[in-house]
Specification:
Layout (H helix, E strand, L loop, with lengths): L10 H8 L2 H23 L6 H13 L1 H8 L4 H19 L5 H14 L3 H19 L3 H36 L6
Helix pairs in contact: 1-2, 2-3, 2-4, 2-5, 5-6, 6-8, 7-8
Length: 180
């Protein structure tokens, strides 16, 4: 096969070092895949024993979807890696072991990486409401709402710009002429 070189700003210096475009393009997802497996060990620390975390890391390292996604040049491993970090920072902030700022920063990155993150925020909101009613203390709810509002506000200009695109591109496609 003929060697193809990447002409992007990142690909030009990296492909000149390695000579192979495909290897260079897939390297970040491979590194993120390894980092994700290591983060799963750290993520499970509050919930599992040492042996259970080793089993978690082993299963994650041989899980076919993680292996395949680590070999693709797509953003799925970045999404998973950031989601694990965000969940860890959320749990640590909830237990007053860490700052809410780290949670807000990873949430902001996640909102700009993948469109499923509002579902993750919704599940965290359900957990926060449950904890609020269980302990009859609103401080967790107020902290979560404030620190989640900052990333959501930073995301709103992109969302409002993209909202028009969503309805103009997908809207007419689903409506037949007789249904209008």
């Amino acid at each position: 096969l003929e060697k193809q070189r990447d002409r992007s700003l990142v690909g030009i210096p990296l492909s000149s070092l390695t000579g192979y475009e495909r290897w260079v393009v897939r390297l970040p997802t491979g590194v993120l895949g390894v980092l994700t497996v290591l983060l799963m060990y750290w993520w499970g620390k509050p919930f599992f024993s040492y042996r259970e975390r080793i089993g978690l890391v082993f299963l994650a390292s041989i899980f076919p979807q993680l292996v395949v996604r680590s070999q693709e040049a797509r953003m799925y491993m970045l999404y998973l890696c950031l989601a694990l970090l965000q969940q860890m920072f959320f749990w640590k902030a909830h237990n007053k072991q860490s700052s809410w700022l780290l949670y807000a920063v990873t949430t902001a990155f996640l909102l700009h990486v993948h469109y499923f993150i509002p579902l993750l925020l919704l599940s965290q909101g359900v957990f926060v409401l449950w904890e609020t009613f269980r302990h009859r203390d609103r401080t967790l709810l107020l902290r979560w709402a404030v620190w989640t509002a900052f990333p959501v506000i930073s995301f709103m200009p992109w969302f409002l710009t993209h909202l028009d695109h969503i309805f103009t591109v997908t809207g007419p496609r689903f409506l037949r002429e007789g249904d209008r």
